[in-house]
Amino acid sequence: MSQIVFYKIRKALRSLTSAEKEIRPNMMISELFSQSELKEKWSQLRTEVGLELPDLVALDFNPELGTHVKIFGIKTIKRTTPVSKGTLRQLVDWTISLNRDKLIDIEKISSKYEVERIICGITEDRIGVPISEIELHHSFTNDLGID
């Protein structure tokens, strides 16, 4: 499944970018789009792929922003990690999690990977933690702030 989604994303990226580099799973998303074209190209990528993609965040458009929102000089709120700093492999995982109902038949789960993607997707959907912030080694309480 991850291979199929990667090929679908790669095909769409080839039509959206003029990059002559080989598009590989370990490539950073930021290598494909400049900041000025990111918003428009991300929307086009979503349409081309025909699947839900993670939402871009403020740090995707302005890396000069601090990683935390500060009030009276005290760190208070951590900003969401930029999606564009992820790799295409992570984008594939995030996309599968966000589209789990379309891509995974819950009656015919065939791998641990599918279970992991379903859990990440449910966590994003029900708890509200952005999919790009969820990693398999995270603790729900310590890392994701869920009580």
Characterise this structure.
Strands 1-2 form a two-stranded antiparallel ribbon. The model has no long low-confidence stretch (mean pLDDT 82). Helices cover 44% and strands 6% of the residues. The protein is built from six helices and two strands. α4 (88-98) crosses α6. The chain has helices spanning 2-16, 35-49, 58-61, 88-98, 100-103, 112-127, and strands spanning 68-71, 74-78. It is mainly α and 147 residues long. It is globular and about 40 Å long. A hairpin with a 2-residue loop joins β1 (68-71) and β2.
Annotation field: number of helices: 6
Q: Would you list the SSEs in sequence order as H and E?
A: HHHEEHHH
What's the mean pLDDT score? 82
> Percent of residues in helical segments?
40-55%
Given helix and strand content, the structural type is mainly alpha
How much strand? Answer: 5-15%
How many beta-strand elements? 2
Which sequence of strands runs across the widest sheet? 1-2
Radius of gyration: 16 Å
Poorly predicted runs: none
The rounded distance between the terminal residues' Cα atoms is: 32 Å
* Global shape: globular
Largest sheet descriptor: 2 strands, antiparallel
Topology:
Blueprint (H helix, E strand, L loop, with lengths): L1 H15 L18 H15 L8 H4 L6 E4 L2 E5 L9 H11 L1 H4 L8 H16 L20
Antiparallel strand pairs: 1-2
Helix pairs in contact: 1-2, 1-4, 4-6
